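Hey, sorry to bother you again with one of my protein questions. I've been puzzling over a protein and I'd love to understand its fold better. Take your time with it, there's no hurry, and the full record follows here:
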Amino acid sequence: MQLGNARIGSPGEPVAVIGAGIGGLTLAVALASYGIPYRVFEKSRQLAEAGGGTELSPNAVRPLLRLGLGPALREHAVAIEAVEVRTRTGELMARETLGAECERAYGAPYLTLRRAHLHAALVSLTDRDRLQLGRRLESVRESEDGALLAFEDGAVFRADVAVGADGVHSAVRAACHGDAPAPSGLVMYRGVLPVDELPAAAADPLIRVWHGAGGHFACYPVAAGGQLSFAAIVALPGDPAEEPGDLAHVFAGWHGLAGAIAKIAGEAPPWPVYDRHPLENWSTRHVTLLGDAAHAMLPFLAQGASQAVEDAVELASCLADLPVSGPGAGLARYAARRVERTGAIQRTARQAAATLHLPDSSAQPDWYALLTGCEEPPDLGPLFAYHAGLHAVPVNGMTRTAGPRAAELTAHTRTWR
């Protein structure tokens, strides 16, 4: 198999991706754009994506457009005009304008859409013959010439590169690093409701966040504006028997849409919220991690999906420009490019969790300072302007820009429209 300038392995031994979620499938599509063979192993017997909506900031939208997801995003996504943060009583604490201004500044819009729609779009761009379903990983064993993957059904697969894209409870990370997800003490209730069953404000292209003592509530439109995705996060009670399930009770009296959505949604199943402690390095010679397996983060900065997309296109780029020394150098380069950025986002998300769940008080006008350490609104440039998978790298003594169809770097807006 030829990866970049180096030949590794033998025919039939591609890159193995463990997990067919958004991160794993984005990697599959990115690898295919370079002509790199791969195989995706998914423990579920059916391809599906759980959860409600997801947010994609420009740093993720740009690479998705390069990979050919423009038609699906145009059909299903909503371009967000602004993010508003309020107290539970409705006092406006912060407003970040996005919309056309964001698109002009960063070459792509800020989008929201159903996770299922994004997942289905990625599946449509993936070679189904390279997807193996019903394969639950049992063990990973690394040797000098590759990674040996053993599955519960008895199947064994050798890969030159194995990528754990198997989520916050990653079997690959457990095998390689031996740690476990960190409980946050929070629980999430989420869902999707038809916009026509909600107050007219639900159709506005806004991300709305309300916060108060011990919890916060967020919502935004998805499905081309026909549905509203919501997520409510509260502190987990000490006694599981007292776990709140009736949102109408938990968020009774909260301002505007938050209270209205909670009343209509009623009872919802809880999802315990975990994150991961940042790693200093998540790559070995033949095994690496991606997405939540590498850097699961609390959902307070809405960067989980976007960082998984960044990981995927960065990893594909590093493998495409694989040095003669073999995959270990490419995987080390990938981790080196990603660890500092994702670790900083993880830590900031934890800080945001503490801020959003503060009680109403006169200190709340300092929301920006509490969240970012700055007195002014946060500078989104370092977050939104990041170009994953597009680097000037030396190839055969020359310098070129890596990445699929890299010449389209300045044409993202036209692609989206």
About this structure: The chain has one domain: 2-182+275-416. Confidence is low (pLDDT under 50) at residues 1-12, 361-365, 370-375, 392-414. Residues 2-182+275-416 form a domain with the FAD/NAD(P)-binding domain fold (CATH 3.50.50.60).
